Amino acid sequence: MLRVFHCGILERQSIIRLDPKEAHHLFRVLRAGDGEKVAILDGCGRYAEGHIVDRKTQEIAIDDLHFARGSRIALYPALLKSGAMDFLIREATAIGVGAIIPLATEHAAVKMDVKMAAKKQLHWNNIAREACKQSGNPVLPAIELPQKIEQIDFARPTFLAALRQPTTDLFRHESAVKSGAINLIIGPEGDFSEREYRLFSEKNAHFIRLGPHILRAETAALYLLSAVDYLRARTDDANT
Q1: Who is most buried in 103, 128, 187, 189, counting CB within 10 A?
Q2: Residue 77 in contact with residue 217, Cβ under 8 Å?
Q3: Residue range 91-106, pLDDT digits in tens
Q4: Are 189 and 216 in contact (CB under 8 A)?
């Protein structure tokens, strides 16, 4: 089924018109025709099933509506080079994450001023939006401007993919992982600095071991996010 993004209100038995960019893609690029089934995502957890009423007027009728809960996982990846960061945001959105907050770390390969950060934020939001359409995830993650480690909300259980010993297995923290809102932190290719590790220790972050191999930062992020998703899915299965 074709998927489109719509930022307006979705209601059963209503008629909508997409914004010009989405309409162009659906009707001009994909050449969707009258009667064709379409899935509509609003980024806030609503997933509608509809059909094209009239290609000329670009009207879409909403036939049914579903709701999904947003993720309460905040992913804090250290700033990576463009290709790696784009890949990470795309795949993390597809897996399902509530927020992505890039970290400006001391050893990060990328440094950004305010103007560049704002431009990148818009670019990353566009990538996440396309990832929602591709994957069918109805919840668009909040992608924020880069922050410093000191700005992290350490009141939430925080799990750090660490190269520094000692580390523990994520499964030893299963109850905390399932508790609700959590932070997942991924360092840069050059690892965190001594000062940053001391700060994480002072804030009682859990240092997590990710298997026997040294992973690229974007791979480590998806590894950790997938493991968390698995643990939470086990809880959901047990309650059904």
Answers
A1: 187
A2: yes
A3: 999 999 999 999 999 9
A4: yes
Q: What is the pLDDT of residues 119-136, one digit of tens each?
A: 999 999 999 999 999 999
Domain ranges of the chain: 2-67, 73-238
Q: Which CATH number fits domain 73-238: 1.10.1270.20, 1.10.510.10, 3.40.1280.10, 3.40.50.1240?
A: 3.40.1280.10
